[in-house]
Specification:
Elements lengths: L4 H5 L2 E3 L8 H9 L4 E3 L3 E2 H5 L3 H8 L7 E6 L3 H14 L3 E6 L4 H5 L10 H13 L5 E8 L7 H10 L4 E8 L11 H9 L4 E4 L5 H11 L3 E4 L9 H11 L8 H19 L1 H16 L5 H8 L5 H13 L61
Helix pairs in contact: 2-12, 5-7, 7-8, 8-9, 10-11, 12-13, 12-15, 13-14, 14-15
Bound molecules: flavin mononucleotide.
């Protein structure tokens, strides 16, 4: 490992979102200021038996930096072998998924099921550790439900077995995506371990990132749903935390330009048919809050060719002012001097917890139950 675990995890990062954060999404996020991206979850057994989906997902990660590859599985032997395969490809880090609550994954004994079998979890992390010198992290939820919180126990095991970092989505399995993420669990985790802790859950803009840092003392922040169709969020958060300034929101013209680039990347990676099909949801996310998007989506859903889709988007945008902002845009409150924070080798400055709340931000309302079967196809 060339940098310390603290430097590695002290970043603003893009969460793995299966079926969404593919190579094109990660590429756009990095271009717009994201400091670390994660692959979608990849099945360890899929890699071991050379399953097509898992292999293709791993191959799509080639040459991407900085990137952490996330694995899931239940057998220490399989995860050890998969770790070796991933390590050979030279990503920047490897992550073990202990947080996936989806039935297909849990019934197989992977993802969240492992937090109920801590002996096996320890064996898996130890086996993975033996096969890589790359930063190794564990991403988890807080536990099964409020009466069965496992994150502290799992974290201590992970630390003992040689994990370099922990990522906590501050919800239980039972919570799904309902209610607010319970950030005090992140603070508890930070106090309980000596390895870096990344906070995750409900960070939607600069002020909420500042609040998470202030309230939990976490080292890094991971952003998921709020980045969908909004890759500017990374620069926005960095800017807010380091200067207290807010960046102007992306205008219609900027959105159309980045969306067009995103479409081209998707087609480059997946071919015209699949690339265009999979981008349909992204178009809705990028243009949410602008007039007549429903009609545009209906048009685009009938198109199969990249250039036709781009032409339809441009024609739609032509009818609107280029400098238009989405109707849901909110101006965040100012950040006071003593709350400033710099990620990645920067120095943390004193943080306070009296930041104003910004509510009703339009974070995308995806749920993990919408996980596509492609990701879990090798169970
Ligand atoms: C549709 C969907 C798919 C997800 N896929 C994964 C995954 O593959 N691996 C993982 O660790 N977490 C996955 N997550 C959880 C996110 O990484 C993240 O922990 C969660 O969305 C909370 O962060 P947020 O509030 O910033 O979105 C997924 C979430 C959603 C909504």
């Amino acid at each position: 490992m060339s940098e310390s675990p603290l430097d590695f995890y002290r970043r603003l990062m893009l969460a793995p979102i299966s079926g969404v954060t593919d190579r094109a999404v990660r590429r756009i996020a990095r271009e717009l200021g994201c400091r670390l991206t994660f692959s979608e979850l990849i099945s360890a057994v899929g890699l071991c038996v050379q399953g097509r989906t898992a292999q293709a997902m791993l191959e799509s990660c080639l040459d991407e930096h900085p990137l952490v590859v996330q694995l899931f599985g239940r057998e220490p032997g399989e995860l050890s072998e998969a770790t070796k395969m991933v390590d050979d490809l030279g990503p920047d880090g490897i992550d073990l998924n202990l947080g996936c609550p989806v039935k297909r994954v849990v019934n197989h004994g992977s993802g969240m099921a492992l937090v109920r079998d801590t002996k096996r979890t320890g064996e898996i992390i130890a086996a993975m550790r033996q096969n890589t010198h790359l930063p190794l992290s564990v991403k988890m939820r807080a536990g099964w439900d409020h009466d069965d919180l496992t994150f502290l126990q799992v974290a201590r095991i992970a630390q003992e077995e040689g994990a370099d970092g922990l990522i906590l989505h501050a919800r239980t399995r039972k919570m799904g995506f309902s209610g607010d993420a319970h950030w005090p669990w992140i603070a508890e985790l930070k106090a309980a371990v000596s390895i870096p802790v990344v906070g995750n859950g409900d960070v939607i803009d600069g002020p909420s990132a500042a609040r998470m840092l202030a309230q939990t003392g976490c080292d890094g922040i991971m952003v998921g749903r709020a980045s969908l169709g909004n890759p500017w969020i990374f620069a926005e958060i960095q800017q807010y935390l380091t200067t207290g300034q807010t960046l102007p929101p992306a205008t219609l013209q900027t959105r159309v330009d980045v969306l067009t680039r995103h479409l081209r990347y998707a087609v480059e990676d997946k071919g015209q048919h699949r690339g265009v099909q999979e981008m349909r949801k992204q178009i809705g996310w990028y243009l949410k809050g602008f007039p007549n998007v429903k009609e545009l989506r209906q048009t685009v859903n009938r198109l199969d060719r990249l250039e036709e889709v781009i032409a339809a988007i441009r024609l739609w945008a032509k009818g609107l002012a280029a400098g238009l902002m989405p109707i849901h845009h909110l101006t965040p409150p100012p950040l006071s001097e003593n709350c400033r924070f710099t990620f990645h080798n920067g120095k943390s400055v004193q943080q306070t917890s009296d930041l104003q709340q910004v509510e009703n931000h339009p974070a995308a309302d995806l749920t993990e139950n919408q996980l596509p079967t492609a990701a879990t196809g090798h169970l």
